Amino acid sequence: MNELFIETEKLIKKSNKILCIAHKKPDGDTLGALVAMTLKLKEFGKEVTKACVDEICDRFNFLSETEQMVNQFDYLSYDLIFVFDAGASYMTKFDQIYPDLFSGKVPVINIDHHASNDNFGRVNIVDVQSASTTVILFKMFKYLGYGITPDMATALLTGIYNDTGSLMHQNTTQEIYEICSELVGYGAKVSLVAKKLFRTTSVKKLKVWGKVLENLTLNEQGVTISVVTKQDLDELDATSDDLSGIVDFMNSVPGSKFTVLLNEDEKGNVKGSFRTRNEDLDLAKLAEDYFGGGGHKKASGFTMPGRLHREIRWRVIPENENKMIEEKSDNANVPEKMLAESLELPSKKN
Q1: ∠ at Cα 161 (158, 164), nearest 5°?
Q2: Domain that holds residue 18
Q3: Which residue, of 198, 231, 253, is where some domain finishes?
Q4: What CA–CA distance (Å, rounded) separates 132 from 84?
Q5: Which of 4, 11, 142, 315 is the most exposed place for a label (fewest CB within 10 A)?
Q6: Would you call 117 helix, strand, or coil by DSSP?
């Protein structure tokens, strides 16, 4: 990792105009890393552009540098590109707009902690043992002797709080507490971060969560499941963004092996979010192998074009019926059949 940090520093020194990219549907980790690095690059006198294909949620407006984000750019006009917390190149969604973005014409530094990362950069600083991407960035700043301002510390802490569930997930190790302590020492606004990420909820969002809990079931295989349709969201004048955080709350059901939240979004997609506290399950592999998604071992998900259709139970109907992901027998269903008591996956479908 230290060699990669040094290589990154060399590229920064040679560059004047730098592009920093957050992944689609940005969360606290991708934004925290982007903000911290942007502040440091500006401190070095670099010209920095911040980019994200989606708008930034209001809950992150306490972070500096989240304004003036762009969703269009000429990537060839930059000397260097940073991508933060993207578990694969497609997670930026800019690869669809600019097919040659990761061709190597402009050096890309890929900083991430997902096992699904496809190492799309010239420099790939990927540490799957890190609780968040901001942890990696913190270690880089420390190793290279970079000072950390209060705004940088707040941004780095935001990523940690986001990806550890406010220091409640099992990836909250002694090292994480030590890093958080150091960041507070640098001036991180811990109370503000905790309030904005986990203690601020609108009435509309609470009503959406109520619909999720109303639809909640625990099946015989020990899978906790809930479903929210586009119609449900429309009736509550809500969006799929209002579902943020509820799947972690669902994961607290006693006796549950893992948790699944299925929802339709505004773009004609079905999104699946998986969570578990079980050490024996690998939800990242499940999401990647069967749904084309990815993530972490205990927290993963997928998005596919389609809709949710209810028969006796909920299942995913992909837009292309030839790619139906379901068992053909009458008693099979998705995702309830997945990782059942035997922990054996159904045969993959072509």
Answers
A1: 145
A2: 2-198
A3: 198
A4: 10
A5: 142
A6: coil
